[in-house]
């Protein structure tokens, strides 16, 4: 293998998470909040996954999806 090693990460991946989030859609931001929480939360890593905050974030993400679907459905009806 002659691929270069130890290259610095591309500039885009070094952006602050909030700077990157500014260009995301609301549904992407909602999903990001859920994933960001789940990755750092001890309760979420528990086998029961009994985390109220994750539940709220997941529902918020799903609500965005349902809104988008209803808009789409309304436009095609
Ligand atoms: Zn959690």
Structure description:
It is built from 4 helices and no strands. α2 (26-40) packs antiparallel against α4. It has one domain. The model has no long low-confidence stretch (mean pLDDT 80). The protein is mostly helical and 77 residues long. It has helices at 17-21, 26-40, 42-45, 52-76. The structure holds zinc ion. Residues 37, 41, 43-44, 51, 53-54 line the site of zinc ion (ZN). The site of zinc ion has 7 residues, from α3 and α4.
Number of extended strands: 0
Oligomeric category = single chain
- Helix and strand pattern: HHHH
Which molecules other than protein and nucleic acid are bound?
zinc ion
Strand content: under 5%
What average pLDDT do the residues reach? Answer: 80
- How much helical structure, as a percent, in the residues? 55-70%
Count the helices. How many?
Answer: 4
Radius of gyration computed on alpha carbons: 18 Å
Question: Largest sheet at a glance?
Answer: none
Shape: flat
What structural category do the secondary elements indicate? mainly alpha
User: Total domains, how many?
Assistant: 1
Distance between the termini: 55 Å
Poorly predicted residue ranges: none
